From TrEMBL:
This is D-galactarolactone cycloisomerase. CDD domains: MR_like. One of its GO terms (biological process) is amino acid catabolic process. It comes from the Archaea.
Amino acid sequence: MKIDDVEVIPISSTRPEGEGIGDARGFGRTRETTLLRVETDTGTVGWGEAFAPGRIVDATFEELFRDDVVGMDPFDVESLADDAYTDSYHFAGNVFSQSVVSAVDVACWDIIGKTVGRPVHRLLGGEECQTLTPYASTMYFTETDRPIEEPMQAAVDEGFTAAKIKIGTGVDEDTERVRVAREVLGDDATLMVDMNGNYRPRQAIKTAKAIEPYDITWIEEPVPPENDSGYREVKRHVDTPIAAGEAHYGRFEFKHLIDDRAVDIVQPNLGRCGGFSEARLIADMATTENVAVRPHIWNSAVGLAAAVQFAASVSRYPNTRNVPEPMMVEFDRSENPLRTDILETPFDPTGGVLDVPQEPGLGVSVDEAAVEQYRS
């Protein structure tokens, strides 16, 4: 079997003027990402996602990857990441190369799964896994005024028992947002916060201590991703677990986080970290050092499917019998047609349970006509 064709498909969706949503760093109205459609000489099609703008993905793929990928046996996929570090050498250690590797890698694993008749999570060594726990990613900052409790109440009404909210604009506002979220979500539910790297270490520490009484499961990106010393400083002064990884890519960046014990939880994004092959290496490093793994998801339905398959494969070590902290996957609750419209059967997180697809490969069927509607 050989890869016969690769198509780069940029897709996007834009919210109406004045209806942007965002985090502590600002607002945005456009969601965009890039799909890869990979077809073999046997007619098997695999899908992947590069979590990066289409024009950059297209140029990077054409310049650095097309000649090697077209004609490649999809079963050789695990050599792709290694070759990307060595063959392109000076160009390998950047987010755009890793995003392209991610898309090709995920598409190849999709093809492998379809060829052998197994879902990817079983191919990656995971036990049979039927369901995961979704957490609502919600309470974004918005351009329009609305009661801050409204989106959390909507998540509760949908049956979510875990949620993550945006903070990072000052200790007083942060504390009020957390207070409201906890009140609506309930004392027994799981609550996380995301600062999106908007703080210096002392600012993050001050907020972390102020919200500690609200039983926070983790604080995400308290400082910018490049601020290694800042992560170490926050970790020294804060008891709440620290999470990061959405803005990191490749095994070497994650190795620094893990080796330095800068975080308690790593969050690889399957459209950026290097795909399944790199994510498996990252998970192995993390679990070896007893660091938790929870994938980051801000992707289309293809990236979501990849994250779900990956999450289902991650080792439960050291919780091999009883699992006090079930594997959770992020489920963005903002409107996103790139997530809801491009699969024949969209993911449904309502009721606090997310089914893991058991069909071969990613376990999902892409609606190619719908993809065309969002091609940008």
